[in-house]
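testing teh design pipeline on a random one, pls ignore if ur not involved
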């Protein structure tokens, strides 16, 4: 009987957890390195800038539109790399909007002449907004 109470308790607790499945999906992950892994900052010894635009299902009225801009460079005084990222994601007719500003730092640990081990950390400001006027609700017939 105690195990049944534990299972019911876990089910009740899981109802109050927040879901975070609204993150954009990038098919060209190599062009969005800092978004997916902040340890990639400064991986190349030269500065690099990436921009990505995604318009999924353009036949549908503004279904999924995502913009992403990333910049990073190696910083020898910091023994690693630094970078920043700006991303805007619009779902539906502006139903769900996400705006994200991020800064990241990657520490590069030199193992030998050919190998490094990178550790990354990213701090972000994320603003998510929901446009209630674009929501479609089921009405009574």
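output:
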């Amino acid at each position: 009987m105690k195990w049944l109470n534990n299972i019911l308790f876990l089910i009740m607790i899981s109802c109050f957890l927040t879901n975070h499945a609204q993150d954009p999906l990038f098919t060209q992950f190599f062009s969005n390195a800092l978004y997916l892994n902040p340890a990639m900052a400064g991986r190349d010894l030269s500065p690099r800038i990436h921009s990505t635009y995604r318009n999924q299902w353009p036949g549908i009225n503004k279904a999924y539109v995502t913009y992403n801009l990333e910049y990073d460079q190696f910083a020898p005084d910091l023994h690693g790399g630094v970078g920043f990222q700006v991303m805007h994601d619009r779902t539906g007719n502006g139903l769900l909007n996400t705006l994200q500003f991020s800064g990241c730092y990657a520490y590069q640990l030199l193992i030998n002449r050919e190998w490094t081990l990178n550790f990354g950390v990213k701090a972000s400001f994320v603003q998510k907004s929901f446009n209630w006027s674009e929501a479609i609700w089921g009405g009574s017939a």
